[in-house]
Amino acid sequence: MADNKNMALNDDMMATATGGAGTADSEPKFKVGDYVHYELTNPQTGETMAVNGTITAMEFLNEINMWRYTVKMDPNPYNCTEVQAREDRLTYA
C-alpha cells in the first residue's frame, strides 16, 4: 500500500474516482412513478409543510454530482403543482 501512495493516475483511473459523490453512471435513488415526500416552504412566510407527489422526470446534474427530479405535487394549500428537487431532499412517502 505504501508503495502506491505516490503513483500517477491515468485518465481512466481519474474518471472512476468520485470520492463518494454520484456520477452520471450511478443509479438514481428514485424512478419515474415513485411516490415521494418533500418539505415545501412558502417563500412569503417561510412556513414549511410536508407534501407528497409523484416523480415525473429526472436528470443527472454534473455540476453538483446529484440527481434532480421533477415531482408533480398532490393538491396542497400553496397551490404548488410541480417542484424540481435534488435527490437528497426527497424521501419515499
Strand proportion? 35-45%
Broad structural category? mainly beta
**Dominant shape:** globular
Average pLDDT metric: 82
Number of strands: 5
What percent of residues adopt helix (DSSP H or I)?
A: under 10%
Q: How many strands, which pairing sense, and closed or not: the largest β-sheet?
A: 5 strands, antiparallel
**Lateral arrangement of strands in the main beta sheet:** 4-3-2-1-5
Regions with pLDDT < 50 over 5+ consecutive residues?
A: 13-21
Number of helices: 1
Features of this protein?
globular, 1 helix, 6% helix, 5 strands, 93 residues, mainly beta, five-stranded antiparallel sheet
Task: Write structural notes for this entry.
The protein is mainly beta and 93 residues long. Helix content is 6%, strand content 39%. The protein contains one helix and five strands, in the order αβββββ. It has a five-stranded antiparallel beta sheet, with no helix packed on it. The longest helix is centred in the first third of the chain and has 6 residues, at 11-16. It is globular and about 40 Å long. 9% of the residues are buried.
Write a short abstract of this structure.
This protein is mainly β. It has one helix at residues 11-16; strands spanning 35-41, 48-61, 66-73, 82-86, 91-92.
Q: Which secondary structure elements does this structure contain, and how are they paired or packed?
A:
Layout: H1 11-16, E1 35-41, E2 48-61, E3 66-73, E4 82-86, E5 91-92
Antiparallel strand pairs: 1-2, 1-5, 2-3, 3-4
